[in-house]
Amino acid sequence: MDDLIYDLGLHRGEDTEFYLMKGFRVVAVEANSDLCAQVGERLEKFVANGKLTIVNKAISRTRGVVKFYKSQESQWSTVVDSWAARNERLGSKSEVQLVEAVSLAELLEEFGTPYYMKIDIEGMDRVALEAVADSGVRPKFLSIESEKVSVRRLEEEIAILKDMGYGCFKVVQQWDVPKQVPPHPALEGAYVEHHFVRGSSGLFGEEAPGEWLSAKQALKRYKRAFWKYRLYGDRPIIGGELTRKVARRLGMHPGWYDTHAKHSSAD
Length: 267
What we know:
Blueprint: E1 4-8, H1 14-21, E2 25-29, H2 33-42, H3 44-48, E3 52-55, E4 58-60, E5 64-71, H4 81-89, E6 94-103, H5 104-111, E7 116-119, H6 125-135, E8 141-145, H7 151-163, E9 166-173, H8 215-232, H9 240-249, E10 257-263
Parallel strand pairs: 1-2, 1-7, 2-3, 4-6, 7-8
Antiparallel strand pairs: 5-6, 8-10, 9-10
């Protein structure tokens, strides 16, 4: 439905609250029970009136119980072993918990097709994207935190989206989200005067910043971003962790990107 949004990766509810303020209904998924409780309390009126449904589960390939690495940096919490190892290498230890898991196919069957789907679930974005592809469900707009280690895997992400019927893309630097300003008049939902905090996903759909690009143009832009990742990202090719720390002190931050995609049915 055109008033439904899936927020896969609720975290502190920064994005969900924005969607609700714009008049959308939201199904928000989050494995961290503490964050679910905090957001549920803060946005209680939306839970009470049925606008917000919080699903306190991890996204997985199938339902069941999975290991959840609850990170000291809450936005880095993950169910993926290699991501937890990366977090620890970057100085953020994790507490291992067992949590309930749900497949995206089950969520889609229960709640229906969203107008927009935000996918930001550390290390599980590709799994979620493939589940949407297999389901046959096609949100008009979809965003995913892009691959930042392998160019090949990034090309595969774009290829999956193209095969699903998404032909227009925006490459959005997430480090710059706090600079975003909602357009007036609004292009999605109601106009909201809003300040985005770092870590939120920001504007979406037609309001997402930048021009719509072809897949080829989007990949070209990403290949430039990968030079920054390699020079002073999480795994710099020269100097290792020292290079990364020095670059941050000098204000050089590679950031990270979300790929926003528009389906042909939205044209």
